# Entry
Amino acid sequence: MEIECYPYAVGHADEGVCLWVKLGPYGILLDCGLDDPHPVLVGMTEGRPINAIVCSHAHRDHARGLRSLQLALPNRPIYASDVTAKLLPLNWPGQRCPPQPRTVAWQSPIEIAPNLWLELIPAGHLPGAAVTQLTYTGAKRLRLTYSGDVLLSSSRMTSGLDLEALHGSRPDVAIITGRYGTARYDRRRSQENQIAAQIERWFEQKPTIVLPVPTLGLAQELLAMFRAHHHFTGRDLDIWVDQSIATVCDLYLELLDTFPPAVQNFARHQPLFWDDRIRPRVHRFEAIEQIVHTPVPRLILVDATTDLTPYFLPQLDPVVFLPNLQTLSPTNLPSHIPRETYHLSEHCDSAGTAQLVHNLRPQHLVLVNGSLNYLADLSNLNELYDRYQVHCPQAHRLLAFPLHSNAGLPVPLPVARYEGEVNEQRDRATISLPAEIQADLRWQKLADTGIVELRWQGEDLLIRGMLPSELLDNKRQGISLEVACCANCVYCRGQQCRNPLSPLHDRRVSPEGYCPAFEAVDTEF
# Structure
């Protein structure tokens, strides 16, 4: 096969992500989140050569095996964004010879081998995180897109993925993270407000809140939120940060010029992290004894992998806040210690994942990096399996991707504009359109029954033709009109999407489908 994928690890449970892909004559390793990369070295003797390695971002589940791999394969180039290259050494504190990737500028394709091109696109999720586009331009053009960990919405420290950079790229294969399965979450600002409200409630009962968090990414997002969110600014509150998280914060400060303008602007007016003067105050600490007799209320951010026992002192009287996808063993979190869970999105939810996929329009969709049940649920969404060949791979099982011609894929219709007139009368208003509009094949469907439906979209007035079936039965196939889905969308005609702004335009859609261009039918018209 021209394109294949052999997963050494697919992100189930704690196994990390490590994917070997074949693109034409080349073998490329996408991430190496293995504790021990020995299986990759064995694979090279079994017909899975490696011409290049790409690191999507610096989180351990994608990068922890890179150091050992580079020591074993010193002549194999590793490619990453500039920020990722600077964050990678955090995975091996105190160890010599961290990986030295070749840095790739954003959205600037480079030829890493004859006819093999690599492009990195900012993915959100974490500073430096990248969507990887691999394109082979040999006898037959081949393209593979690997999302890594991706987030469409902007966070405190990163801008979200710009879908315009990927729209219509039509890779033959897209490998996409499905961490949250079919779950949908509120907007990020709403999530922050919910966390602030939870903290406020608990401070009425407890003087101390302990937050075990990953040292890279979520810890800095929370600190930036505590510093800038209106619920916390000016509040007499002390925030304590353990040394492992503080080390990452210090590195972030060195990378400040790569962060979004809002972050840089904040840092020009007051310290981004360490501040003993402006409330809320932020301090670093090395031992719990530094905190016990400090003023309350206080927040304590600690490495999620550390032993939490020292923080359960009676003098602290804490409550523990946990990310809702993280679990701690009973030995780390005794039953008598109150706990609270919160959610702050680091990945796309199901709506964001579908939006990403529909903008890519791949032939084959591979879902990785989530629990097997979550990925299976996601793969069974009608809007995905009705349109793409969906795969949920297992580690150490080869996937081959037979390709078909793109000739049959729908081509978006050109945008046609017409100028008409509006005439107001005492009992009605009429819109007159030029006769040439009737030459458009779409006019026949709009005028089929002679009855149209109009609704406002902002300052614009939308007109659509009513189908005979709608006039006879305006009930939408038993689906509640409150549900945001294709059956209740003003652009859905005979199970075809007619919205030129939708990634599903001119495609057959299922009644339960959904896309971000959804517009509800006005049932009171």
